[in-house]
Amino acid sequence: MNHDHDIVQLTRQFLRINTTNPPGNEEEAVLFLEAILKKEGIGSTVFSPSSGRANIMARIEGKRKGKPVILLSHIDVVPASLDEWEHDPFGGELVDGFVYGRGAIDMKTQAVCQLLAFIEYGKCGVTPQRDIIFLATCDEEVGGKYGVEYMLKKVPQLRNASFVLSEGGFIKESQGFSHAQVSVAEKKLSRFALKATGTGGHGSVPHKDSANEKIIKACARIISYEWPIRPTAVSSAYLHGIFKGEKKKGYTFKSIEEALKNKRFREALEAVPLYNAQLKNTVTPTILKGGERINVIPTQSSAHFDARLLPIQKRESFFRKIEKLAGRDVRVVREDESISEPTPSGYDNRYFRGMSAVIKTTERYDLAVLPYITTGATDLRYFRDLGITAYGFFPVTLSDDEILRMHGKNERISVENIHRGLSGVYEIVKFLGSQDAP
User: Fold this and answer.
1) Which residues contact 6 (CB under 8 A, 6 or more apart)?
2) How far apart are the first and last CA of the chain?
3) Could you report the per-residue pLDDT of 418-429, keeping only the tens digit for each?
4) Looking at the structure, do residues 203 and 156 belong to the same domain, yes or no?
5) Sign of dihedral through CA atoms 370, 234, 159, 36?
6) At a CB cut-off of 8 Å and minimum separation 6, what does 87 contact?
7) Are residues 298 and 385 in the same domain?
8) What is the CATH number of the domain that holds 295?
9) Do 386 and 246 share a domain, yes or no?
10) Residue 14 gets which letter from DSSP?
């Protein structure tokens, strides 16, 4: 594709805008995107739910009204500690062919690629079948209250979309095998805390009513529990696409259901964090609080858990199990009561087939394109909750190491991937523009 913008420079500039959430402060980033659109003569609307917070929307009008296609991105990022990084997380530094910065993968680079693809498509002289909407929002990293949730109330037409494209999938390169994983579902966010109270005192005089000990014992029971493997239609299709015909641990893969009966094969799957998370609920302790001085027994203690549930897991039965494991000496406090339980998007449809064809054409024809469950939460859940087909995919190739940098230290993306991402997104937008609403 031809474009008048230096995609690498724009990405670096965008990464330099600190939109760490909390507090967010995404307004400066929105004004950055607005200026690019304005330079191209494209009108946009900025929506400000509160001071310093902002969302932006622009539109290419289609032949028919209603049922728009939405290119969705979020512009806030998770925190980054400067002392843990090799390069300034908000410096947008270009080193050895990689651009470093918080949001390089999640998901400022994709936002810039979607913006430039949107602009280029608007200039190509083809009128899409339906409106194409570019929507960049705030607040995704802490739930989306001021972002997508706000926008769905403010712009009712968004609730009537025919398709939404955002984050969640990549072309993954691992152990010599490459495949495109297109996110059609995600695990349910179900965070909770354990809280305990007890009798304080001097550390030299222990007793049987320690808040810390109550939390430690409850945590040990929860952490040691082995959640059962429960393959879903999506995870079965994904793993079948990866392992079909492969011999692993002395076993030839035929189907995930049969493979899981083989102990060695099952243990090999569980040993890979990505595959394990596709097949099980995961419950991870992330924050521990209890005590301030080494010689003082505290009266209060707590532990926070990041739980991600399979799409088929009901929250109520999950929390009944957690409360049983935690025991009577602690309280279980749920932290995501308002999170809905959307169903996965279908993948036996023209959107999946069309995107697969585009990916194979732009990458290579023998590349496997597989449906995938995102293990983290995204804003796509809001649209899936409305019954809208919503996929997460960014056409860049990432190694396991690069994926682990997301939300970690030294997040980065290669210059090659930035260019490939832009070209790939543009081809996907062209396909989406040719599709009439179902």
Assistant:
1) none
2) 29
3) 999 999 999 999
4) no
5) negative
6) 93, 95, 100, 410
7) no
8) 3.30.70.360
9) no
10) H
Which pair of structure tokens corresponds to residue 186? 């995600």
CA angle (55 as vertex; 80, 68 as ends), nearest 5: 120
Query: Last residue of some domain: 306, 334, 362?
Result: 334
Q: Confirm whether 360 is domain-assigned.
A: no
419: left (phi over 0), alpha (psi -120 to 50) or beta: alpha
pLDDT one digit per residue (tens) for the chain, 438 residues: 555 579 999 999 999 999 999 999 999 999 999 999 999 999 999 999 999 999 999 999 999 999 999 999 999 999 999 999 999 999 999 999 999 999 999 999 999 999 999 999 999 999 999 999 999 999 999 989 999 999 999 999 999 999 999 999 999 987 677 899 999 999 998 999 999 999 999 999 999 999 999 999 999 999 999 999 999 999 999 999 988 877 666 677 888 888 888 888 888 889 988 899 999 999 999 999 999 999 999 999 999 999 999 999 999 999 999 999 999 999 999 987 666 777 899 999 999 999 999 999 998 888 999 999 999 889 999 999 999 999 999 999 999 889 989 999 999 999 999 999 999 999 999 999 999 987
On whether both 195 and 323 belong to a single domain, the answer is yes
HSE-up (13 A, CA, CB side) for residue 84: 11
Would you say the pTM of this structure is higher than 0.70?
Answer: yes
Give the structural domain span for 166: 7-171+375-433
- Alpha helices (runs of H) in 327-409, residue ranges in sequence order: 350-362, 380-384, 400-405
* Cβ atoms 109, 98 nearer than 8 A: no
Structure tokens at 155: 């712009």
Interacting residues of 397 by C-beta distance below 8 A, sequence separation 6+: 170, 171, 172, 173, 178, 417, 420
Q: Which of 117, 57, 17 is nearest to 418 (CA)?
A: 117
Q: Do 231 and 145 share a domain, yes or no?
A: no
Q: Is the dihedral of CA 134, 136, 142, 148 positive or negative?
A: negative
**95/203 same-domain check:** no
Helix (H, G, I), strand (E, B), or coil: what is residue 339? Answer: coil
425: tokens are 């997104």
List the one residue out of 416, 415, 393, 412 whose CA is nearest residue 404: 412
* Shared domain check, 216 and 157: no
Radius of gyration of the chain (CA): 23
Strands 94-95 and 98-100: antiparallel
Report CA 371 to chain centroid distance, whole Å: 15
Q: Which amino acid is at 206?
A: P
Considering 280, 308, 334, which residue would you say is the last residue of a domain? Answer: 334
122 and 193 assigned to the same domain: no
